[in-house]
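Re: [help] complex structure
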Amino acid sequence: MTYQKGRIRREDIISAAAVVYGEAGYHGSSLREIAKRVGMSHAGLLYYFPTKEALLAAVLERRDAEDSEREQLAAAPGLGVLRNFVALAEHNVRHPGIVDLYSRLAAEAVAPDHPAHEYFERHYRQARESVIGSFRVLASTGELREGVDPEFAALTFIALMDGLQVQWLTTPGDVDLVGSLRFYLGSLLTVPLDPEA
Amino acid sequence: MTYQKGRIRREDIISAAAVVYGEAGYHGSSLREIAKRVGMSHAGLLYYFPTKEALLAAVLERRDAEDSEREQLAAAPGLGVLRNFVALAEHNVRHPGIVDLYSRLAAEAVAPDHPAHEYFERHYRQARESVIGSFRVLASTGELREGVDPEFAALTFIALMDGLQVQWLTTPGDVDLVGSLRFYLGSLLTVPLDPEA
DNA sequence: CCTACCGATCGGTAGG
DNA sequence: CCTACCGATCGGTAGG
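Output below.
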């Protein structure tokens, strides 16, 4: 009971921060703007998160937690992992704010001294490893087209997701996020991604 | 003769701005930092470019001019256009600063009110149209694999280039920019990209 | 949690 | 081109 209100307040702040980061990036966001959206002063916000960076860390932490939860990504390497990524894209299309946040931060964090730089290094490595493993399994069962290198396939698959998101945000009407992903997988696999109806 | 020095000075400022934008993005850059790198005061810089936005416009203008020059991209739709893109990637690998600039600005400019937003809208549309046309030609000559949709192929090709660049900047050792592009084209085409030796 | 404040930095202007 | 300045905004702290 006792810390309940504080915990809710913290969650509200994290949510507001995620939205503002998506709109303006991390460096482009101010504690005052985030605080205003949850109805407090920026000094009040600093009572919950001692620094600007601490708030960013909390946002990234919650994103990871949400991802793990949705994925149950324990999914064994193979088609299931790829289906999970497509499902993630479907989820993202319905929640553009997540795409905003992710794309803005990823691009900003290219700078080695950005506080989210290590987070994204880790993120890319993990994503690639997971996808490489899946393509390797598919190769061994003949579900990957002849001559397709699992490592290139994985690297380009991840890059494609990221590039599509930026392009989708810039010219939304011109980009079919999920369709493009399926198209690409179709060009690599010898079997349909989804079980036939 | 007369305006020679001023023109050179302007070029110096634009070059410095491009570097700083690549490091810190547009919003993250200050006129004072750019001015310092060319050895003048920020007020002096504003003598050459009346506002921060005017300097950004000049940077983008010069980029376009350089692109057109290198491309002679009048290259007729078809394999030549795709080869040009691969050549661009080869050029970029040797000039990471260009990739920094482009990736940072593109991501920032996702925001509709960003001063470079329209520039990137135009940029994406043009790139897509050029590549779509080329894939259509290749389809008509049987050089595109059966069942590959030219529009999806073009959209994903552009997205892949952008996504690869961000990932390359974040984890340079793990990403083969040019190889990934060739891999991708290889999975779409029925003919080699380059004429056999 | 708030008010009030700090030092730093920003883009831009005045006036030469 | 420079010095000097302006108003605005920033993250963070003091003190309650």
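Chain B touches chain A through 48 residues (CB under 8 Å).
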